TrEMBL record:
Annotated family: Belongs to the TRAP transporter small permease family.
Task performed by this protein: Part of the tripartite ATP-independent periplasmic (TRAP) transport system.
Subcellular location, principal: membrane
Name recorded for this polypeptide: TRAP transporter small permease protein
Species in which this protein is naturally found: Roseivivax sediminis
Length: 190
């Protein structure tokens, strides 16, 4: 068996699809920050276990901080998946279509997803309004209500709003990218 017959064990890491444009590449780079947040959350929890069970001195902030960091990472993960076209898709019909029909379907689904993300962003705006302002119009960020009482609920809602707006724009960029892309042979997206 020659070396060309053996599949290389090194695979190229998946990246934002070309149709995602510059925004997709920026989203790809931003993911490292949120991956670091997950690692930081794990370190905080490890420290909390050590402080709680070795020194009997638990913190009041560790659990809320890690929930906040992981929540932000999961929200960003949705945007990250959009830029890579790695979201869940039922491909039974999609894979049976010719390349031109798949291209049209990609454009349509991207535009439909943009509208859906826009509606969700509008709903998030309503949540942000309630989380940041009192009915009288004073600025008061919603807090967790715990002993530490950080404003993490308000911050997560604001981050969700930003993510949904960027997601809507990313879907528009994808639709434009699919529209500009020439029809190729029998490619299949995973």
């Amino acid at each position: 068996m020659s070396q060309t017959d053996v599949e290389s064990p090194v695979r190229e890491a998946p990246r934002a699809i070309p149709e995602a444009g510059r925004l997709g590449r920026a989203i790809e780079k931003g993911a490292y920050l949120f991956a670091a947040g997950i690692v930081l959350a794990a370190c905080i929890l490890l420290m909390e276990v050590f402080l709680r069970y070795v020194f009997n001195r638990p913190t009041i902030w560790a659990h809320e901080t890690t929930t906040f960091l992981c929540g932000l990472a999961f929200l960003y993960g949705g945007l990250f998946c959009v830029s890579r076209n790695s979201h869940i898709r039922v491909v039974l019909i999609y894979d049976a279509l010719p390349a031109g029909a798949r291209r049209i379907l990609n454009i349509f689904l991207s535009l439909l997803s943009m509208v859906a993300a826009g509606f969700f962003a509008f709903a998030a705006w309503i949540m942000v309004g309630k989380a940041f302002w009192t009915p009288q119009g004073d600025v008061r960020m919603e807090t967790s209500g715990s002993a530490w009482n950080p404003p993490t609920p308000a911050l997560v809602k604001a981050f969700l709003l930003v993510i949904l707006i960027v997601m809507a724009v990313q879907f528009l960029v994808l639709a434009h990218g699919y529209l500009r892309r020439p029809v190729r042979g029998t490619e299949s997206f995973e």
